[in-house]
TrEMBL record:
<feature type="compositionally biased region" description="Pro residues">
    <location>
        <begin position="61"/>
        <end position="71"/>
    </location>
</feature>
<feature type="region of interest" description="Disordered">
    <location>
        <begin position="50"/>
        <end position="79"/>
    </location>
</feature>
<dbReference type="InterPro" id="IPR002469">
    <property type="entry name" value="Peptidase_S9B_N"/>
</dbReference>
<dbReference type="GO" id="GO:0004177">
    <property type="term" value="F:aminopeptidase activity"/>
</dbReference>
<keyword id="KW-0378">Hydrolase</keyword>
<feature type="domain" description="Dipeptidylpeptidase IV N-terminal">
    <location>
        <begin position="134"/>
        <end position="384"/>
    </location>
</feature>
<feature type="domain" description="Peptidase S9 prolyl oligopeptidase catalytic">
    <location>
        <begin position="484"/>
        <end position="674"/>
    </location>
</feature>
<keyword id="KW-0031">Aminopeptidase</keyword>
<keyword id="KW-0645">Protease</keyword>
<dbReference type="Pfam" id="PF00930">
    <property type="entry name" value="DPPIV_N"/>
</dbReference>
<dbReference type="InterPro" id="IPR029058">
    <property type="entry name" value="AB_hydrolase_fold"/>
</dbReference>
<protein>
    <submittedName>
        <fullName>Dipeptidyl aminopeptidase/acylaminoacyl peptidase</fullName>
    </submittedName>
</protein>
<dbReference type="InterPro" id="IPR050278">
    <property type="entry name" value="Serine_Prot_S9B/DPPIV"/>
</dbReference>
<dbReference type="InterPro" id="IPR001375">
    <property type="entry name" value="Peptidase_S9_cat"/>
</dbReference>
<dbReference type="Pfam" id="PF00326">
    <property type="entry name" value="Peptidase_S9"/>
</dbReference>
Length: 693
């Protein structure tokens, strides 16, 4: 097994920059050209493109003329676009260029900061981050809008740090943590003039904090120096309300609102920026009222027309040209796989939709600042990505990059295979990825490992960017490490069952009232059974499951509710009991109060555990707090069940300093109980994951 461990370590996601070259392009637009950096086997290279001349100039990456500015997460500051004003938070108050701007802030009632639950203060502290104030600058670069959160009435959660650095007594950390049915934090907004200190309060009653603060998710934007907009999701996310605010007086009016029986989405998921745009009396509005997420144009509060329609959905807005009356966007569902994005153009006034990218695959697109050029990177799981420059008609002007996967393949990587299977209902198509070891031999029999997430807000198999973090399961899979796990000698399945996003409202709403997405687990069983029937090299007698966070909860539920199918499980940092987890989770996917948020608890199933289960969690997890894991542990102890547990001191929702140890323990557990081999004695994963190599 030692060679398998070495291959698995070589395919850890931390190695992607060394193994994958010319795959990612982020253009920086200038007057008549743009440039970007690409990784190569010789190091980073800088490429400049002159679109009009179709000219490409490549050379060594040049160091910046000045030290790059640190991100706000490290400085704890937000600086105005012109650099004149720097806003920080201190003891609940705002400061501008070091001088106090407000004087009545206090713990639990602070300016600029999100709620504790949204902020994750323990994680921020451990990663050396200082939370910057949440604000949006007006076009004049002088005024900004920010909020003030009141969580003084919210119950608290205490987390113990048993082994603080330097030793000494254990420490208690307390934060506000609202659970389903609890009173929620509220927030108000105010507009400040950074130069004069003048303040204008926004005349909207205190609103309940339902997920991210509007400022944290792009739900507040300025139209001009005197007008701004705020999009608010009501408690339980069953309604969306759009306010227009006069920045001079603070007067606010409701311009648009919509409500739903389940979740009222203003983007494909609640964790993405809204697909809503405004100009004057016109509102481009996103809704899945038709059963699919589409765009609608309103004028003066009245519906003008549908901009898009059909059994597919709008995934991302790239550009709205109000003068040309057109919108550029990425769709999901125009290709052979519903999770792939295509570039499309639509007429705002209802003239129809044109698909601009004929290539079947997933397209990720950047639009130039003047709207004339498009940089499109497209790929499929089995082919290296290609980056091209297109004009606004979608025509290819020139090829820019073609990914080089030579070193990745030499390291033992094998491209995942897409598959389709039927859900447990026997009707609905499911899509997934199958990862096999690089030295795959069809004459052998391989145990199956389900790398699961199963949450209602994230799909496991698609390429996407979530809050600036790229998730690409087709390469080294940062969310689950599927290629690394496959290298150990397993067939790894990545699948999204019913109740997960990007497949339309009927598919998504299966999870409403069931935030654990039990139907999705039934789909995993059905799909894996079909895969094994079609592929004799898959061993249906050896099926395991592994997941983190929502995937950890899905893993434990799979082991307890399908004990004859899943034989081995590794459950990490799970939100096991939704009545004790974030209010935003249960209330969004089970419904606002009153509800029985303990319904669907897995604890009564503890006595059904028949397989091998490893439970891992950090003792300072301020997301899925340790009490959730220990509730499950307590139920298993009361049932006198056999299981293993690893609690990591000083670790929050990610394991950071202990990641190499936790990873090795997971590999050892799967090797011993699922593969049926002995782990290599004394093997240690490099805690830097080869960073110094």
């Amino acid at each position: 097994m030692i060679d398998a461990y070495r291959r698995a370590e070589a395919l850890h996601v931390s190695q992607e920059a060394k193994l994958v070259h010319r795959s990612a392009v982020t253009p920086v637009w200038e007057e008549d050209s743009f440039w970007y950096l690409v990784g190569t086997s010789e190091g980073p290279r800088q490429v400049r493109i002159f679109p009009e001349r179709k000219e490409r100039v490549e050379g060594p990456a040049t160091p910046p003329a000045a030290e790059p500015a640190l991100p706000p997460e490290l400085t704890g500051a937000q600086t105005s676009p012109d650099g004149r004003f720097t806003v920080t938070c201190e003891a609940g108050d705002l400061l501008v260029n070091g001088a106090p701007l407000t004087h009545d802030g206090e713990p639990g009632h602070a300016y600029g900061l999100p709620s504790d639950q949204n902020r994750l203060p323990i994680v921020a502290t451990q990663q050396g981050m200082t939370t910057p104030p949440l604000l949006a600058w007006a076009p004049d670069g002088r005024r900004f809008i920010t909020h003030r959160v009141d969580q003084r009435h919210v119950p608290t959660l205490t987390i113990t740090q048993s082994c603080p650095p330097g030793g000494g007594r254990p420490l208690a950390h307390t934060m506000h943590y609202e659970m389903p049915g609890d009173p929620l934090p509220t927030f108000t907004h105010a507009i400040f003039d950074a130069e004069t200190g003048e303040r204008v309060d926004v005349a909207v009653e205190p609103l309940a904090f339902t997920h991210d603060a509007p400022l944290n998710l792009g739900r507040i934007w300025w139209e001009d120096d005197d007008t701004l907009w705020m999009l608010y999701g009501t408690r339980g996310h069953r309604g969306a309300v759009l306010y227009r605010v006069d920045a001079r007086t603070g007067r606010a009016e409701i311009v648009q609102e919509e409500h739903a029986e389940t979740v009222m989405y203003t983007a494909p998921t609640i964790v993405e920026p809204p697909l809503v745009r405004t100009r004057g009396d016109e509102v481009l509005w996103y809704s899945d009222r038709s059963g699919w997420g589409h765009l609608y144009l309103y004028r003066g509060g009245e519906l003008g027309n549908a901009v898009t329609a059909g059994e597919w959905l709008v995934r991302e807005l790239l550009q709205v040209d109000w003068t040309a009356r057109q919108v550029l966007f990425l769709s999901g569902g125009h290709g052979s796989n519903p999770y792939d994005r295509r570039l499309c153009r639509a007429d705002l006034d209802g003239g129809g939709v044109t698909v601009l990218t004929p290539e079947d695959g997933d397209h990720h697109v950047h639009v130039s600042s003047d709207g004339r050029w498009l940089v499109d990177t497209y790929a499929t799981p089995g082919t290296p990505s290609v980056t091209v420059l297109r004009d606004t008609t979608g025509a290819v002007v020139m090829e820019l990059e073609r990914a080089d996967l030579t070193l990745l393949e030499k390291a033992g990587w094998r491209a995942p295979e897409r598959f389709t299977a039927k859900a447990a209902d026997g009707v609905t198509d499911l899509h997934g990825l199958l990862f096999l070891p690089g030295d795959f031999d069809p004459g052998r029999r391989y145990p199956i490992l389900d790398s699961i997430y199963n949450g209602p807000q994230i799909a496991r198999q698609l390429r996407t960017t979530l809050r600036g973090y790229t998730l690409d399961p087709w390469l080294l899979d940062p969310a689950g490490g599927a290629p690394s796990l496959a290298a150990l000698g397993m067939a790894v399945v990545v699948l999204d069952g019913r109740g997960t996003p990007y497949r339309g409202k009927a598919f998504q709403d299966v999870s409403y009232g069931d935030p654990a997405v039990s139907a999705g687990l039934e789909d995993h069983v059905a799909a894996i059974t079909q895969l094994a029937a079609e592929r004799p090299y898959l061993d249906l007698e050896r099926v395991g499951v592994i997941g983190h966070s929502g995937g950890g909860a899905a893993t434990a539920r799979a082991m307890l509710t399908h004990p004859g199918f899943f034989r081995v499980g590794v459950a990490s940092a799970g939100d096991y009991e939704h009545d004790g987890y974030y209010a935003i989770w249960g209330e969004t996917y089970q419904g606002p109060p009153p509800q029985d948020y303990a319904a669907g608890s897995m604890l009564p199933h503890a006595s059904r555990l028949a397989g091998k289960l490893l439970i891992i969690f950090g003792e300072m997890d301020d997301n899925c707090h340790p009490g959730l894991s220990l509730r499950l542990v307590n139920a298993l102890v009361e049932a006198d069940a056999d299981f293993e547990m690893l609690m990591v001191p000083n670790a929050a929702h990610g394991y950071l300093h202990a990641e190499a140890h936790v990873l090795r323990r997971q590999w050892d557990f799967l090797t011993r109980h699922l593969i049926g081999a002995e782990p290599p004695a004394g093997y240690r994963i490099d805690p830097t994951f080869g960073a110094a190599a």
